[in-house]
Amino acid sequence: MDDRTTITVPETTAQTPMGLGVLPERHRLAISPLNRRRWQSFKANRRGYVAFWIFMVLFVISLFAEFIANDKPFYVSFEGKSYFPAVVTYPETAFGGDFETAADYRDPYLQKLIAEKGGYMLWPPVRYSYNTHNLDLPTPAPSKPTWLLTEEQCKSVAERKGVSGCSDLEYNWLGTDDQGRDVVARLIYGFRLSVLFGLALTIISSVIGVAAGAVQGYFGGWTDLLFQRFIEIWTSIPSLYLLLIISSVLVPGFFVLLGILLLFSWVSLVGLVRAEFLRGRNFEYIQAARALGVSNRTIMFRHLLPNAMVATMTFLPFILSSSVMTLTALDFLGFGLPPGSPSLGEMLSQAKANIQAPWLGISGFLTVATMLSLLIFIGEAVRDAFDPRKTFG
Amino acid sequence: MEASYQNLLEVADLSVAFRQGSRETLAVDRVSFEIKKGETVALVGESGSGKSVTALSVLKLLPYPSARHPSGSIRFKGQELLGLPEDKIRHVRGNDITIIFQEPMTSLNPLHTIEKQIGEILLLHQGLTGEAARARTLELLTQVGIPEAETRLASYPHQLSGGQRQRVMIAMALANEPDLLIADEPTTALDVTVQAQILSLLKELQKRLGMAMLFITHDLGIVRKLADTVCVMKEGKIVERGPVEQVFTAPEHPYTRALLAAEPKPDPAPINADAPVVVETKDLKVWFPIKRGVMRRVVGHIKAVDGVSIAVRQGETLGIVGESGSGKTTLGLAILRLVSSNGPIVFLGSTIAGLTFRQMRPFRLHMQIVFQDPYGSLSPRMSVSDIIEEGLWVHHPKLTRAQREERVVQALRDVGLDPDTRFRYPHEFSGGQRQRIAVARAIVLEPTFVMLDEPTSALDMLIQAQIVELLRALQKRRNLTYMFISHDLRVVAALASRLVVMRHGKVVEEGAAAELFARPRSDYTRALLAAAFNLETAPVGVVAQ
């Protein structure tokens, strides 16, 4: 007789025989004790907690990418008036130029015009945007990081610009890609795009997946049966090939790609939520709500969904990192975002094509690896936070 | 060595503390008792009084190191158990002292046959294998009264009834002929009829094998029947200790007196033959199809409710009694239209059979249900106030916030709870308080008809009596009509004006409660009565085993 396994909880604390299912979630505005305890155990995972803050800082910084890496200054003072080129597009004529086209602030001619009228410009730390071609490259693109160049290589450009040497050039800290675009700028924008794309894909596919799983689990029977068979058939479609076919027919953009990936990614949460609802719908408090005449929709939202959310929350960071990975992979294969987009996958594929330019491969790899590692560490900490044994043990 | 001890087990000054985070709670506070050879000692008290924890510390089965013993000693046959290393204590455990638990459903491994599970113990402690083990297993099964033991050897736990599973547990506990058997509420999860069988089995085995027994229960009826000495526990302390006769006839401690007075007194609502009929069914059937084969052909039906006709009149209580599996709960759910059924159901003059969920909604205002399990029937993620006002949202959506709050407060007062507690969550309440909340949820809508599905069977004796009193008071004040479903005739007797006795989905007997209690006509009813009031067993075949 294995006595050990049958008693683990002493009688005095046996108020919660169903473990996770029976503790309160939240109370109006206050943070419930349970959530506070979850936050504590999230923090207790040091690696995940640090990863969370690093990621949040990187993400928030990248949200303001236009103010960090841009080919437009964020403030121009010209003839006593203020301009905000990073947010508003001004025609060149606004600064006394000749054309109605958008002003190119990197153009020495325009810079001269502004300087002559006593105006000044405030530039972001990196003076390139993700699609700015550096026209004054000392070496053919892909060009080395500026600090690795020899004075000899810099000479012709330095002379043309009238400066003394390499150290006075505009720096490409991590070099340029094969079209002369700054790698740092592309990494910052690429990081933002990947995370935003991943978040959008994760949130939309979770909403659809949870809704589908909830309907199946709650109603059961034929609804469940038909839906399950449909999902089985759907998931057996080789999604990558279909993606390749569709993206060669439709012009792939952010939202087209999001839609195509969504077609297959919503399935991932269905099984989990369905199981939670199947388990939950026979609880007595669900019966009690039905006896009160509460409608199905209210029961699903108010009584059952909170139970399923724990499992969903645990999965979210992992879905997020796999979404990011999918996008990067498609870009790498050349079926992803349209050419010119700041994409990490595209940088990796450039790195593959230009082995002689290791700064592409190393920076691309480090960025992707850091981002995914951070997400996985956060995911582990979230999993710890929602682990009922840790929370109640 | 053998003669060096007087008592088989001596527990002196034992305390148990549990650490949770930085807080430490004292679950057992300086408890002392002793058990002589062949004696039965009962530990009585409500849940949370520390009786199980006391028993488990004898075997060191508590979750150490979050549990610890600030003081005390446990001497078994003169040997101190508290400081004993794990490998030595394992020798005592399962060999000299064995234990049976409350829940026979989860105490057996569902993936192993009965023979394998008993055989494992014989192998571990006695090294028996093959034919010898099989013979001993058969002997044990016969000893605990399992019929056709030979064919049962290859059975899996799910093929046995709850009573039979508990018998197998007892067989496993007896396998090594222990000197002390600890029984931790072994009959609480069972029907009264099966409880009576298990108790008489334990008593007989104890007499035959000469072992001592430490019996943990909240039911004084069992104590009176079974024990020699009783220790009454409250809040971790033993408040009274003595021979059963003495404690029962001359209780000293006020708590013991309260416990003894806790049995619900019969005072059912009067029968009024002229009162209007609230609920009526004619030949109601709930059949669950049994499907077989690839095409899922219906090959037969489980007749959970098979042609039941009942009528409940305004202001009375109709008791529905029967063993588990007799279809009484299914009948209740069918009347509330929570499971689909065949046959007319008339509620307040309208036929409600066949109505859709939406069409049923106006009727739900007048019919409510209180479930058995106060832990499962309240949503853990909603505050008490949210739980109670949920029905108001559905049926009185136009109420203002203040009006809703007023009705919630009133309902809480009616069930004897402090309205200030309404923003707390269910887990902060005890079982009895939770059941009061469930009652408040039902009565806040001011229903005519309340279905009570075993509302007391998950509760302690003392709390049971309180809930029965509450239900009775509410019925008088609000002229409620109850349908009371229970397997425990002691509680039914306290409330029911009329009775329907069910077995296998059919009505065996019905009539006025007083009449039926005094002169039961069927053997089945007699067996139920004997089991409930005297813990006596019926002849084989009358009730389930």
How would you sum up this structure in a few lines?
The complex is a heterodimer of chains A (about 400) and B (about 550). Chain A has about 400 residues and is mainly α.
Could you characterize the architecture of this molecule?
The complex is a heterodimer of chains A (about 400) and B (about 550). In chain A, strands 2-1-3 form a 3-stranded antiparallel sheet, with no helix packed on it. Helices cover about 60% and strands about 5% of the residues of chain A. Chain A is built from 15 helices and 3 strands. Chain B has about 550 residues and is an alpha/beta fold. Chain B is built from 19 helices and 21 strands. Chain B has a 6-stranded mixed sheet with strand order 7-8-9-3-10-11, sandwiched between helices. Chain B has a 6-stranded mixed sheet with strand order 17-18-19-14-20-21, with helices on both faces. In chain B, strands 1, 2, 4, 5 and 6 form a 5-stranded antiparallel sheet that branches. Chain B has helices at about 50-60, 85-90, 115-125, 130-145, 150, 160-175, 190-210, 220-225, 245-250, 255-260, 330-335, 355-365, 385-395, 400-415, 430-445, 460-480, 490-495, 515-520, 525-535; strands at about 10-20, 25-35, 40-45, 65-70, 75, 80, 95-100, 180-185, 210-215, 230-235, 235-245, 275-290, 295-315, 315-320, 345, 350, 365-370, 450-455, 480-485, 500-505, 505-510. Chain B is about 35% helix and about 25% strand. The radius of gyration of chain B is 25 Å and the shape is globular. At the A-B interface, helix 1, helix 11 and helix 12 of A face helix 1, helix 12, strand 17 and helix 13 of B.
Helix content of chain B: 25-40%
Structural class of chain B: alpha/beta
**Largest beta-sheet characterization of chain A:** 3 strands, antiparallel
Unreliable runs of chain A: 1-28
**Number of contiguous helices of chain A:** 15
Provide a count of the helices of chain B.
19
In total, the number of strands of chain A is 3
Gyration radius of chain B (Cα, Å) is 25 Å
Spatial separation of the terminal alpha carbons of chain B: 44 Å
Radius of gyration of chain A: 28 Å
| Uncertain spans of chain B | none
Strand order of the largest sheet of chain A: 2-1-3
Output mean pLDDT of chain A.
Answer: 81
